Amino acid sequence: MRTRYSEDEVAVRDAFLDFFANECPTSTVRAAAEGSGFDPALWSSLAAMGAPGMALPESLGGAGAALTDLAVVADVAGAHLAPVPLIEHAVTARALTRAGGHDDLVAELAEGSTLATLALRPPTGDTARLVPAGAVADVLLHHCDGVTSISRGNAPSAKLPNTADLPLAHRVISDPTAIDLDADGWNRTVDEWRALTAVAYVGLAKRAIEIGVAYTKERIQFGVLIGTFQALQHGFADAATSVEGAHLLAQRAVWALETNQPGASRLAGMALLFAAESARFAADRSVQYHGGYGFSEEYDIQLYHRHATAWILQLGDPAAEYARLADAEFGPVKGAA
Amino acid sequence: MDFSFPPEVEAFRTEVKAFLAENFDESMLDVTHDGTMHVPELHAALAAEGWLAGPVPKELGGGGRTALESIVLNEEMQLARAPIDAMGVTVITAAILMEHGSDHLKETVVPALLNGEALTSFGYTEPESGSDVAAATTKAVKDGDEWVINGAKMWTTMAHIADYVILLTRTDPDVPKHKGLTFFLVPFDSPGIEIQPVPTMATERSNATFYDDVRLSDDWRVGEVNGGWAVMKTALKYERGVAGGQFMSPPVIDAGIDWATNHERADGTRPIDDPAVRERLIRAQIDVEVCRGFAYHCADLANEGAMFGVEGSMTKLFASETFKRHCREIHDMMGAEGLVTLESPEAHRGGLIEEALRHSPVTAIYGGTSEINRNMVAEGFLGLPRAR
């Protein structure tokens, strides 16, 4: 039992904290938002740090690290709203690794020279709608009716303007190649996305609270720092408690996936829902306690609010995720089709 | 990160499950409906296993169980609905006495506590000092070789069946409030003590206790004179390690799932097929997993010898506030049927859900209110300025 980072994990975190602090200030997030929602220079630097191939086998050019190590990076990337599809890329590369027979492609993905993503929802006809990183990825993994396929060669299409300026785009699938990944293998891939996105949400949420707390320790109203008001303190305390709980749940979900615990999939689904809700609550409190400035584009906290809203919706309506967990827990709804 | 338990702790969990299967079933809870929250046969069986002394260090005469083993015992008991209150009070009092008590107390009272023969209750809170516990005014004055105690305590739960109360008193009114406190262990058969029942909105009964010229020899003092706050810290250290209440919800949720699956509404549908009910139940199960994370985190910190404070506050805050919500939502799901109380044979599962609903508010009050815990998180975790 070790519910805190190990020394190695702390070292990884500190290295990436330095990296993102230097390479990804919020001006980078804002600049990416003006374009595709992706920062190629940041991706190259991240690739030079070895992040894209971190949790891929050494034999395929990866670093052979565990999913729990990748989660340490996902947390820090989330805290910085990094405009790079690290999670989508990594879980897609891991899916191709498990399928086997794509060594050359996986090696490209490990070094980050090729960018991969996945359609979290099944394509409609020949089109996958609103694909995460769909505006920038070279390779698309998708799943329909028990068959998992990759598509290469189709050029990325234009980003659709969206809530958090994410690189979301529709992708027309013209050249699918089936890979050896069944429905369970696909579910495992989406569960890895769920758990790592939960961790990223925790990073986002912790940073949103830090920004809000810092503001209330500077802002004076009625002649006193507003951070002394218990109404604000208790809102922050509820948010921080929820986020700490989300952190422990998300990390446990990643660990459970890494070590193939029974119930890992359940935990991954739960972690995403809880982390998303915690992050949205944290961002809401922080915007609220900024007063009018929180609503202005100039202040960074609004970025956190918009990203907190958006990330989970790439997968779908959270209500459908609760329903999915309920089906697994209680069986399907009686009388439902 | 590693959320697995070492093999010896997993083995202990198996042992605890077997123990509970043999020594506890829900029918034993009938005796707790007068509000004592104490099942004597279970308490005796726990003592026989040596588990009452479990979390107390071996060098202090305890069982030397690790914090991980303690949380496993705590978790399994709560999942089985076995009351943990008497165990918690016993362990905490024994630990206080072994760290701070006189030889007299260590030799006479501690063995009786650990073998299950004696029970204690907490005497911290007063009519005029609840959350502000250090403002206690119950007076202890030295008179020759004896101490004379006068005052009143609230929420001395289990006092009417207990042998002792661990009493927080004021021994110096002229210094800052934390510096003039002294603890005593007071036998309830001392002349001058009156115990009055305090009925509650739930099924449990608590007590108010009154101390009128109660005379004690110095052997009954616990810790230094005016050193009561250090003793309080010991109490809190063990309370966070062994007492808890992180797993109050699962029995209520399970009973709710049972209801939702096996009952029909007037229109012939089952609640379990209602998407709104399903989402609520899944949300409750998610909260339980969050509580589990908090519980294991606190145990891990304690196991590594790290003193924790704010983590305990977060755990208590989250577990009690979500427990209240779970009780409310699951009780609502039963509609009018949920209103039937345990006195009626028609009550679902012995009235478990209704009883939990009425009990739930106190969980966010006792042992540190949610508001106090939010203050702790705001100041201790977020570094916000002290607001009071």
Describe this structure in words.
The complex is a heterodimer of chains A (337) and B (388). With 337 residues, chain A is of the alpha+beta class. Chain A folds into 2 domains: 7-181, Orthogonal Bundle (Butyryl-Coa Dehydrogenase, subunit A, domain 1), CATH 1.10.540; 185-330, Butyryl-CoA Dehydrogenase, subunit A, domain 3. Chain A contains 12 helices and 8 strands. Chain A has a 4-stranded mixed sheet, covered by helices on one side. Chain A has a two-stranded antiparallel sheet with strand order 2-5. Chain A has a two-stranded antiparallel sheet with strand order 7-8. In chain A, helix 1 (7-23) runs parallel beside helix 4 and helix 7 packs antiparallel against helix 11. The radius of gyration of chain A is 20 Å and the shape is globular. Chain B is an alpha+beta fold and 388 residues long. Chain B has 3 domains: 7-119, Acyl-CoA dehydrogenase/oxidase, N-terminal domain (Butyryl-Coa Dehydrogenase, subunit A, domain 1), CATH 1.10.540.10; 121-226, Beta Barrel (Butyryl-CoA Dehydrogenase, subunit A, domain 2), CATH 2.40.110.10; 244-381, Butyryl-CoA Dehydrogenase, subunit A, domain 3 (Up-down Bundle), CATH 1.20.140. In chain B, strands 1-4-5-8 form a 4-stranded mixed sheet, covered by helices on one side. In chain B, strand 2 and strand 3 (146-154) form a beta hairpin. In chain B, helix 7 (249-262) runs parallel beside helix 9 (310-333), helix 8 (275-303) runs antiparallel to helix 9 and helix 9 packs antiparallel against helix 11. Chain B starts with 6 loop residues before the first helix and ends in a 7-residue tail after the last helix. The relative contact order of chain B is 0.10. Chains A and B meet through helix 7, helix 8, helix 9 and helix 12 of A and helix 8, helix 9 and helix 11 of B.
